[in-house]
Amino acid sequence: MSEPPSRAAPAFGIELEAGPVWQSNNTVQIPNDDHGTRFSLEQLVGSGPWPAARLYFDWNIEGGDPRYPIVIFAVGGEGDDGGREKI
Questions:
Q1: pTM higher than 0.85, yes or no?
Q2: Residue 83 placed within a domain
């Protein structure tokens, strides 16, 4: 029985991932020093779910296979800033 012919990997590829995302605890401090203001993004915009997508470009070259991800995600909204705890 003979071996099936091998196929060379394609030079370029595109892959798309999509689905919902959530957040449960996302506290940030701006600027990130002792004088920064700490607030919760979850209180400002909610916990989701939001639509999100990730697009990958693959380039198969000798010596490595670089992958270039592009993340498509944006959340907007207004909410309670929780009193902005000054620390």
A1: no
A2: no
Contact status, residue 52 vs residue 18, Cβ threshold 8 Å: yes
Q: Residue 84 domain-assigned?
A: no
Identify the residue whose tokens are 């991800």.
69
Distance CA 65, CA 8 (A): 14
Token digits for 71?
Answer: 């993340």
Q: What is the pLDDT of residues 20-55, one digit of tens each?
A: 988 888 788 888 888 888 888 788 788 888 888 888
**What domain count does the chain have?**
1
Tell me, yes or no, whether 68 lies in a domain.
yes
> Residue 34: left if φ>0, alpha if ψ -120 to 50, beta else—which one?
alpha
- For the stretch 54-68, pLDDT in tens is 888 887 777 676 777
